[in-house]
Amino acid sequence: MVKKWIFVIVAALTVAAAAGVWYFIIIRDRREVQALVNNVAALACKKKDNLPHSGIFKHTKVDELFDEKVRIKLFKPAVDMDLTREDLKGRVAVLLRMVDYLQTEAGNVNVEVSGDQATFSFDAHVSGKGKSGRDDFSDVYQCSGSAVKRDGKWRISLLTAEPVIK
Q: Looking at the whole model, is its pTM more than 0.85?
């Protein structure tokens, strides 16, 4: 009778440990993808008094955040293209040169993970001011995409953005 109870307790502890490990792994991956989304939002930021060379630091982040090939889909302006990391670095540099300052924040981040694939969606609040005294802007975009886990690191492979009509 005692052996039966020991077996039941060991089996229960084994099941609980397996469930705990599974839960920890899924939650960890979700948190990593959420952090990835927030880091991408930070990539599209420029402070008002940036040093001229600060954009160099942004370029190094592209390698950490994006997969080797990335599909970018924007609905306004209409853009649908596949880019390499090097292409994306150049586009980030051009974007940051076009504005005096730019602030991007990711809100309502939702992540679903399945193995080494993840999908995400979030609201991007983008505000800033263009160069040469252009007007300030403040827009909201509904963004979504997918990420892949390679060599233990999550990287974005698809990013779409559609403006939310005010």
A: no
